[in-house]
Amino acid sequence: MLARRCCVPLFLGLCLLLGGGNALAQEQFELSVAGRPDLASQATLDRDTLVIVDAAGTRFDYERAQRLDSADGRYLGFFSAVAGQAVRWPISGTGTMLIGDAAGKAWRPGRQQIAAVRPAGPMPGRGPGVLGPAAAPGGAGVVGPGMLGSGSLAWLSHGPTATWTAHISPAGKLLFFDGHRDKWTHHQLEVPVPLVPGAPLTIVEDPAGATPRFLTVDPNGHLIDIAGGSTVRTLAATVQFPPGANLGTIRTDAGTWVLLCDARGKVWEIDVLRGRASMVEPHEGVYPAGAPIATLVDGPRASAYVVDKQGTLVEYVRAGGWSPATPVGSGFVPGSSVSAAAIPALGGNGVVVAAVDWTGKLAIWKKDVRGWSSDAVTSTRLSPGAPVAVGMAPEGPLASAIGTDGNWYVWNYTPAGMWVPTVISAGFVSGAPVLFDPASMTFFTTDIHGHLIASALAAGKWTSYFLVPGLAFTPQLVSRRVIPNPPLPPARVSLDNSGPDELIVQVVDQAVPMAPPEVRIPAGASSPVAFERDSGGTLEEVYLAPGPLGTLVEQVERFPIPPQPRYTIVAWSNKVTYQYIDRRKEKPKGAVPSFDLKSHVSLGVFPIPPGDLLPEGGRVDVYREATLQRNPGAVLHYPRPAAAPVQFQQAE
Questions:
Q1: Residues 152-208 pLDDT 10s
Q2: Is 226 a member of any domain?
Q3: pLDDT tens-place string over residues 439-465
Q4: Does a structural domain hold residue 363?
Q5: Same domain, 512 and 377
Q6: Residue 153 CA to chain centroid, in angstroms?
Q7: In a designed cystine with 144, which of 288, 358, 482, 564 is the match (CB 3.0 to 4.6 A)?
Q8: Is the pLDDT of residue 261 over 80?
């Protein structure tokens, strides 16, 4: 069939999906932090009240306060006496909130990105395109953390040319598709309980029905089993998991098991058929709560891989019972995503494990009789800890991930022992999940709109398709590109320390994933730092859709991309944590003099605002911002300061 290009639809009757207006009557929103489903919240907004419910179910009511509206008219003000703070909500319904103190001053951007929740099914579009975003991009962009529409994925082959795939949308809807390569059908499921937006899930075949079962951790921290799309039961009800925890799945002829890290960092194995829970790692605090777990099955033997709080990638082996953890490699972000596959072509016993280390390099580990060794794929920069997929194709071993530049990469392993990258397409979310179905030679990911995308390999070429509810066809992605706005100059900003102790400040640059530079700021002092600023751009998508005469028509859609966050501040206090004082008036010869010992005490982590939200000559009170975040544990995701703790002698 012939293909033509147009910038508006050339036919009638095609559903325009998931756009919408900006009425202020009972609008629903999701607040998300990329890769952190435990930080997801829901918001309901009307003219007088903003209600925010966090992932733990705690509700905060903010009352409308016109005095707190922003002077430029972009934000509406609200205040909560219970929370003791003010917020400014963007009138556009996208981007981030601004958070202020009880006096409505000292405004700072929140971490969570806002996305409007759209009802399921076709709606009038906000533009002329067929696909229409599931949530307007707004404050979510193509590159970097904080994006929306990148919920975790699941797949399961159920025949030589049939695959099930599913994900939980930014609106908390379970989206389920059945198909193969370029032909996919959406099946409407009405799950009667709320789901965590973007939460990981797994698919299990159901002998009792044509629809598979879906397992995920609900907003109450319970592992639930959804059968027939509507019947829900709780598994291992006595074990509390973080809402939206990751799942590793083991499938054998004897049954199906899932592995999860609970809220205390212990690892459990759940028998899906019997609902029984048994312990894999009984020690608390070994792993971040809900950490990703990769699994691999080889006959009766199964193995699991997870990155602990020390940044060590470890292996568990089940051969009758589970073995203690043994190290594979180190240098990873705690709780990094991990992928495992059996690839005999790479040598050894065929076990291959892949993860992105804290410098942004893709590390592919192989095991032989001498132990583990790794290949470092250095040609492309990735987000530390980002999802990656490994597998085997007729052409040889493969790996795939989304780069920090927003490109979707596939690496092919050559006979010369090199991993050579190919770009499937551009304009994706750095850190989005990537999965591989070896039966159909298909990779899956999600884009910034929340659409599920399948890319199939045929004749050495990757061709991508949109999986969108409500369409009777599967649109083919022709091209995707990011058109940048005119650049912004760097902003020179003063980092202030209003605290009582010296601060050690790490400036983490997402574009340069290496040991971050450190700035020491004495109490009451300041230090100037120059920050590069992203200016945003436009995402252009071209895809094929059937026209009125059965021909394929190229449709073009363009979406604005706001400036992207690039820098994160990690703050440590150089604090006196041990003090020795010899109060004896007559000290014997050789007595140890009095001294203080200073140690690095974590304060918190917060992002630097992107684009023109970061003005030239601005000031950031690092001590205040870090303590307001109330997230000192977040420093675990970054390397410790290089500077050693200080011991000094007191004046007698």
A1: 789 999 887 899 999 998 788 899 999 998 899 999 998 999 998 888 999 999 988
A2: no
A3: 889 999 988 777 899 999 888 889 999
A4: yes
A5: no
A6: 12
A7: 564
A8: yes
Enter the pTM of the model.
Answer: 0.71
User: Of 174, 178, 176, 184, nearest to 157 (Cα)?
Assistant: 178
Contact 363, 329 (CB under 8 A): yes
As a whole number of angstroms, the distance between CA 626 and CA 485 comes to: 31
> Any idea what the Cα angle at residue 276 is, between residues 272 and 282, rounded to 5°?
115
Alpha-carbon separation of residue 296 from 200, 304, 332, 341 (angstroms): 18, 6, 20, 6
DSSP states of 346-404 = GSTTSEEEEEE-TTS-EEEEEEETTEEEEEEE-SS-B-TT---EEEEETTEEEEEEEBT
User: Could you tell me which of 152, 156, 34, 38 has the C-alpha nearest to residue 96?
Assistant: 34
Q: How many Å apart are CA 567 and CA 144, to the nearest integer?
A: 10
Which string of DSSP letters, residue by residue, matches 512-564? S-SSPPEEEE-TT-EEEEEE-----EEEEEEEEEE-TTS-EEEEEEEEEEPPP
Predicted confidence (pLDDT) at residue 430 exceeds the cutoff of 70: yes
Q: Which amino acid is at 135?
A: A
- Residue 293, domain extent: 236-470
Task: State whether 466 and 398 are in the same domain.
Answer: yes
Tell me the C-alpha distance between 511 and 196, whole Å: 30
Q: How far apart are CA 462 and CA 473, in angstroms?
A: 19
Strand partners, 53: 42, 59
- Any idea what DSSP says for residue 255? E
Left if phi > 0, otherwise alpha if psi is -120 to 50, otherwise beta: which for 149? left
Domain total in the chain: 3
Q: 313 CB contacts (<8 Å, ≥6 apart)?
A: 305, 306, 307, 327, 328, 329, 330, 332, 336, 338, 353, 355, 365
pLDDT digits (tens, 9 = 90+) for 564-599: 888 889 998 887 656 666 677 777 777 667 656 667
Residue 369 tokens read as 């009789």
